[in-house]
Amino acid sequence: MPGEYGCQNMVGRMRRALVKRPDEGFAVDDWERWHYAGPIDLEEAQKEHDAFSQMLRDEGIEVLYHPEPQPDHSDSIFTYDPAIVTDEGAIILRMGKPLRRGEEGPMARRLTELGVPIHYRIHGDATVEGGDTLWLDENTLALGQGFRTNAEGLTQMTEALEPLNVEVIPVELPYFFGPEACLHLMSLISFADADLAVIFSSLIPVPFWKLLNERGVDIIEVPEEEFDVMGTNVLALEPNRCLMLENTPITRGRLEEAGCTVLTYRGVEISLKTEGGPTCLTRPILRDR
User: Fold this and answer.
1) I need a labelling partner for 236 at 20 to 30 A (CA). Which of 13, 41, 61, 192 fits?
2) Sequence spans of domains, the chain
């Protein structure tokens, strides 16, 4: 129903979010195939995820679960990636990582169950992953162009968002560690407020860096040692209140100096081993404007 979905910003107070609790499909034996740092301890992963989800509830967020089993789709706990939710409903994406193909159908079914209509489906040879989608404001979406989101994906996202009067701005991404690694646009930047972002400048394209400055965005630099442990991955719960991994003290301190309240969580199994931080673990369905 209208009023229960809509998420065309990164920082408005989060009201509803979809998460997927780790199950046997997450703790796979072939962890190297998934580019994980080591084998997953499922019991510990579930404890970490339960604590993470409780933190969201403690913030007044309605936490919804994505329970459909997805064998051989270990990355499906990262609910941010298979869809985005606009004011007109969900855009079901098409994963660029071949191992993640097949997550789209279960996500579409779950969002439909939750009353979110399907506005558009990325199709054909197009690929778009949610980690490459970054709302600069309600009418501007930055879209990473790398190994996960291609040029046809940009074309279709532009088509999908044109009726909503949303401009899509392409952002070319660097090679970094190549197609096997996970480098999304949101690997490089997160917003804590509409005009405050943490970034790893060394990998930010110059035109995009200039655009942020032209838009008056204050930049908090993430040091290299914390970029390696996802210091750039910050989930805004509301303006100037955010959630990040506990092992990022420098970035946390810089956010606090900028006036933010920062909550932290333990995510050895669900984040550090798997290259997926708090933004990846949540699919916001409803945020305040």
Assistant:
1) 41
2) 14-287
Q: Using a cut of 0.90, tell me whether the model's pTM lies above it.
A: yes
Distance of CA 123 to the CA centre of its chain: 21
Q: Which residues pair with 133 in a beta bridge?
A: 143
Closest CA to 271 of 251, 250, 244: 244
- The DSSP letter of residue 229 is T
- The C-alpha atoms of residue 171 and residue 183 are separated, in whole angstroms, by 13
* pLDDT(93) > 60: yes
Structure token pair of residue 56? 């969201």
How do residues 184-200 score in pLDDT, each as one tens digit? 999 999 999 999 999 99
Q: Which residues of 207-244 are buried (b: 16+ CB within 10 A; e: fewer)?
A: ebeebbeeeebeebbbeeebbebbbbbbbbbbbbbbbb
* Architecture field, domain 14-287: 5-stranded Propeller (3.75)
The CA distance from 140 to 225, in Å, is 31
3-state secondary structure of 149: coil
What ranges in the chain are assigned the alpha helix state H? 42-58, 104-113, 151-161, 206-214, 224-227, 249-257
Mean pLDDT of 50-64: 98
pLDDT one-digit tens code per residue, 106-122: 999 999 999 999 999 99
pLDDT at 246: 97
